[in-house]
Amino acid sequence: MAQQAYMTETDNGGSDPERRGNRLRRLAGRAAAGWRGDRRIWTRGLVTAAVALLLSGVMAAHSHIPNAIGNLGSLTETFLPWFGLLIPVLLVIALVRRSATALIALVLPVSVWLNLFGGLLFDKTGTGGDLTVATHNVNADNADPEGTARAVSAAGADVLALEELKASAVPTYEKALEAKYPHHAVVGTVGLWSKYPVGDVRAVDIQLGWKRAMRATVATPAGPVAVYVAHLPSVRVKLEAGFTARQRDKSADALGEAIADEKLPRRILLGDLNGTMNDRSLTAITSQMRSPQGAVGDGFGFSWPASFPMARIDQILVDGVEPMTSWTLPSTGSDHLPIAARVKVDTTDS
Predict the structure, then answer these.
(1) SS3 215
(2) What CATH code is carried by the domain that includes residue 223?
(3) Is the confidence at residue 328, as pLDDT, over 50?
(4) What residues have CB less than 8 Å from 174, skipping those under 6 apart?
(5) Where are the beta strands (DSSP E) in 221-300?
(6) CA pair distance 312, 315, nearest whole angstrom
């Protein structure tokens, strides 16, 4: 008598990846069928689409937002990268509302944001270079200046700038850094420490009435470099006054003039500028120097506040030298993060 074999289908039949793939295809098919059968996908979500277009306009035309009222333009430019966070929010709303119009409108802000900041999403760091520089706003109220000095010097910078130096804390920084940096100069609340000889030190007048900027010549093995250290006035966001930055803007113009008058062809600016590279009010400086972070850095390099960095207001800017890499250093006892960059001073073979 012939025996008949039976194939029994169980819950374990088939591979897990295949079952997951089938489930996803079924869900996608149901979603697509729902959209195809909905005649209102073009008329729903018009408000969401309008917000997407407005967002695109703000990002694309940020330089045209006037500063006449509360320095609104500069405030927008300071936090401009964060406007991109609105895009996924609008995307979720468009999907929940099943609005094809809103989804299509979102292509515009995505394109604008990527055009502005897409290059910062990739690691552009290089190798080489012959000079490492670093800068740090150490915070006048820093409870551990010695620990901060040790931490920032561990980065191995050849030239180190410190801002917001409290007079009573200067000896502590000098003692903590003297082993690595035999040459240094302090002018007012800013200071420069160097492994190489430092000369022609002088204060830079940034229209404040007290000294928060300096200039020095650092005799590197590859040639002399004019190094500027600056701490521009702080800005405040006030409900009744907006983004108060008038004194910062005035000081930025004065610093820009001083750098433009520099005789040495190689120039490096280190410091807390209380503004980002997008802020038009720093144009007197940024128009003649470039940021290693933007050119060869990895990511946005936000430096403030240290607890949750939201903006890069601490800057390293260069001219006449070639940036090779840029990075942000670990947190110290300050409310700012230190930043560093490596540059090539000898560009004769570039």
Answers:
(1) strand
(2) 3.60.10.10
(3) yes
(4) 184, 186
(5) 223-231, 236-238, 242-244, 267-272
(6) 7
